[in-house]
Design goal:
By secondary structure, the chain is an alpha/beta fold. The chain has nine helices and six strands; from the N terminus they run βααββαααβαβαβαα. Strands 3-2-1-4-5-6 form a six-stranded mixed sheet, with helices on both faces.
Length: 285
């Protein structure tokens, strides 16, 4: 109508998301977990992935399994042919069968790599590897979109950039931090910060993760340690399913504090040595 101010043009990529989910599959942790079983977590994750894909037909989800010895892709909605198909089970989306099949194969491979090694305690999962794989996946997707747009006509080029998804990483983690991975994890965090990719963290273990606290704080993501794990899907859908554009005007949970202490093997040995020296001085006095 005349006299009315024209609204800003709609950016179609505002609510288009590329979510890379890092799923902690460390068998030593889940065998000792009493608050949540892995089967329950897996069910919540599948429901969460399905909700992301239903929110927008252009949304993409990638799942990376973070094992004790290795990590690998177990699902990619952009190349999967079962996203819009129905499965034999009427209560389960079509892509779930593909995820379960790939996950079983991954567990077998991860178990073979363990061999007869004896693990002291719960052990840590390969978080540094899965973070690096997530960054490679996101950057490859962006480069592919840019390369496609460069080869397209001017009209198609504009249309391509309109639908480029906003990427984020979601870490579903329970295992304790591995000090030997500190440098590799921090390199991945700084790479995500440089690329403006937020790292969200949902910790389901008994203790907080200093690695993920720092990752979410540095990259502008959300760190959350749910109190009631039976309602994990509600946490995932209400907090982590929010697209990056909507986060500008939605009040999301904020951590009470962030542990910025270095967790490298060298730093731990140095701290142990200093505490030992201090104790000797007290005994001498």
């Amino acid at each position: 109508m005349p006299g009315m101010a024209s609204s800003a043009p709609k950016n179609f990529a505002d609510d288009v998301s590329l979510v890379v989910v890092l799923l902690d599959t460390n068998p030593y942790f889940w065998s000792s977990s009493t608050s949540l079983s892995f089967s329950a977590l897996f069910s919540h994750v599948l429901s969460f992935v399905n909700s992301i894909l239903l929110l927008n037909q252009l949304n993409q989800v990638v799942i990376i399994a973070t094992g004790y010895n290795t990590c690998d892709y177990i699902f990619d909605s952009s190349v999967s042919g079962s996203v819009n198909q129905s499965s034999g089970n009427a209560r389960m989306p079509g892509f779930c069968e593909e995820v379960i099949k790939n996950f079983d194969e991954f567990l077998s491979e991860d178990e073979k790599l363990s061999g007869s090694d004896v693990v002291d305690g719960v052990g840590s999962s390969l978080l540094s590897g899965s973070l690096s794989m997530a960054m490679c996946c996101i950057l490859w997707s962006c480069c592919f979109m840019i390369g496609f747009s460069m080869a397209a006509s001017s009209a198609a080029k504009s249309e391509c950039f309109n639908y480029m998804p906003l990427a984020s990483i979601l870490c579903l983690h329970g295992s304790p931090d591995g000090p030997e991975q500190y440098v590799s994890v921090m390199n991945a965090i700084f790479s995500a910060q440089r690329s403006m990719i937020p790292i969200d963290s949902c910790v389901v273990g008994a203790q907080h993760s200093a690695f993920l606290q720092q990752a979410s704080y540095i990259t502008g993501g959300v760190y959350l340690k749910p109190q009631l794990l039976d309602g994990l899907f509600q946490y995932l859908s209400s907090v982590f399913a929010t697209d990056l554009h909507s986060r500008n005007f939605i009040q999301l949970p904020k951590p009470v504090g962030v542990d910025f202490r270095a967790s490298s093997v060298y730093g731990r040995a140095k701290a142990d040595a200093s505490s030992t020296i201090g104790q000797k001085r007290k005994d001498a006095s």
